[in-house]
Amino acid sequence: MLERYGTRAIPRYTSYPPANHWRPLTPEEPARALGRIARPLSIYVHVPFCKSLCWYCGCNMLVDHRGELVERYLAAIDREFELVSQLVPSRREVVQVHLGGGTPTHLSPAQLERLIGGLRRRFPWANDVEASIEVHPPVTTQAQLETLAALGFNRLSMGVQDFDPAVQERINRRQPFEQTRDLVTAARRLGFESVNMDLMYGLPLQTVERFGRTIDLVREIDPDRIALFGYAHMPTLKKHHRLLKAEELPSAEGRLALLEFAIEQLERRGWELIGLDHFAKPHDELLEARRDGTLRRNFMGYTTCRDSEVLAFGPSSISEIDGTFLQSQHDVRAWCGELEAGRLAISRGWTPSEDDQLRRALIMQLFCQLDVDTKAFGTEHGIDFEAYFHDEVIRLAALESDGLVQRKPGRITLTAQGQLLLRNVAHVFDAYSKGPPKTHAPAV
Which end of the chain has fewer beta carbons closer than 10 Å to its terminal beta carbon, N or C? Predict the structure, then answer.
């Protein structure tokens, strides 16, 4: 099973088609897409700065010590807020906000007020907005927490990865348990309603025993949600990954043991696995959304904000408007330069064909519900499921024989083992897996 499925490079399917198939855009195309917005907004803001480099990191970030580029970024993103607000047909209400990075708490309290003030002037927040921010405990102060609470933030997300000191030393991320625990305690006293923690398996020196101690400490803090990600070692794409010794990384068998152990331990301690890599407490609205069929997956992860458009700001950020994707320039300075010249810094994107929309709906249902009623799906989308996906259904037979899916007349259901290989199951329905299909759509 590991040989057949565990070594394939398969997208995480936070979009369909995956971003590597998108096209360059003309200046007019983003404006047309933004002009079609007619639903509430989920807003993402990318803050790309960190005080130090974690050697496992795969995010778009840069280390900042002097501050000049941060000031340039703040001026540019305020300009981006203004340009985009002029293209959106009317003042749509914001139901969800997320600040990611990088490390958003690299910004001082005054800079956070400046950033959020500019955003809220252009895009009004709903009274019950879900406002979350990624924080790093070693660089997050009480003053920042108080500022964020006053600005309307009510959720925290933080990377932990592993509390083991030896693992932290190897990945150049020192984050004491006590510091993390105290930050969460302070946030809850200020009224933050939900806390998410990210854990990562596949890092250097990790063992089941060591990871078990990390999970014990996480249980002591008791976050509402947990995201469990696998480290992707990409030394050819991320030069700093070369700082990690390949011989210290767990084997494929070791990674699987860590994953299975973590799932078993987290579920035993009261968190339930959702989709690919998220866990939540039984009372959490993510589980309620999964039960009633409204769970959604996008670049911000799993979310309950189904009836909204994703509007994203900052370098490399990705907007999703009625299935159309718009991605900004990756390089921070190039992104700033475009906005300083009065232009949107969007560099590429995709407008879906009918086939794209159909396959995206199916893949997202697999990721969110782990089950497809093929007759109901066909009726909803006006197709004969078995005929339209004839070749894919044939390919599913191999996954069924391996115990990843169960097929009954009119239904495809993932098994517990299939949930661990959810991307492999979804990959069966990816028309781009062998290059662009003949029915592919042009750029936006």
Answer: N
